[in-house]
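Supplementary Data S3. Sequence and structure tokens for construct A.
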Amino acid sequence: MGLRFEQSFVVHAPRQKVWEYLTDPYRVVTALPGAAVTEKVDDATYNGTITVKVGPVSARYRGTARFEKLDPAAGVAEVAATGQDASGRGGADMKMSSRVTERTPGETEVNVVSEVNVTGVLAQFGRGMIQDVSDQMFERFTTSVRQALETAEAEAPAAAGASAPASAVAAPPAVPAPEAAPPIEVLSFGGKIAGRALGRAAREPFVWIVVVVVLALVWFLMR
């Protein structure tokens, strides 16, 4: 199943800071629930995993992402990724192009175009459901990116204004131990996905045929 997504968001942070964040896989995965970088193959290629759970169906993908183009001057990055379900039940291929543009000093717009081909167990949920999941995942991702970059920008002036005695030596900040990221849990996105999915299903005559058959079977067993 081939899908195309076009999305954009604005971050209140300098363009260079946004570019550095989005082209660093180790920082990007912190904004993606269930994702992890497992190996750096070379400066442009990384291996990783991502776990997705849709209702009772859980899929863990192992794959490779490669930066095919990095143009800092134009703010354009192109990534190709491929992955396979660890249980062999399907896979996904993706080509993504992103562009960062300075709107005003300290305000950056990010535009993303993705072309994704999904096969196997996740494809059975249909285009509409996958679109809903993608939208919710993107919303979570952009929220995490904004929190990381905008909080850093807000804290920078305070840190610069604070003065310490010349003889004092600041201790390096403690680095928390890495934790296993939970899977992307579709049901945790709330009722919006379920409501839209049921609304689409109710318009399909096949759904009502199934309902009638189930009711008839229940009536027969009760007898």
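Construct B, processed identically:
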Amino acid sequence: MGVLDIFFRRPAAVGDAAALADFIDQNAAFIAQKGIYEYARARAGHYAKVLFKEPEFRDACDVARWRAFPLGLAMLGEVVEGVLSPARAEQRPVQVDAIRTLTLGVFDRYPVPVALGAPAWHTLRGDLERNLQLVGLHPPKWAKDIPAPYAEKYFNLMPIHERLRRSEAPTIHNYLRVTMINIHDELSRRIDAAAVVQSLRGEAFRA
């Protein structure tokens, strides 16, 4: 295989529950890290290099990143549910529960972050579980509408003083909206929906 073959190779298909869990994990981590770091760099401007060398600031970013991760997981779980939403309404509760279990499993891949500690990490898991349970209480949302309940919490995690970022919440919300649309489109292109649904049912049955 040549260099060009590697460069232009399509991303692997999402064909089972394990691949879907990896997709959720990677994209939730992307949301947690890129949004926070890029916002901080943009807000700091020419002082970004100096700021990111400060231990206190790096610690604040680490705390923000880990707190943002379960928000990303909640949004990703809802994106997945929208992509896989069954045609028959009576099948939806089982599928929502399977996606909730899978997404919580992604959270549980990670040990307790030193930056947070066990009590805070346990609380974040409980919040994630509740958010995923709410998915089945309303019709599937458009991807662009999924961030609405999470945007303010995500914005408040930014490691920049509140007075310096007060007017920029809509910018962060729009970033999340665009990101969710892009993730939805990527998953729709890569997923083998029938195979993934079958795999999720098998995982749920074994559980």
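Residues 3-8 have pLDDT under 50 and may be disordered. The chain has ten helices and no strands.
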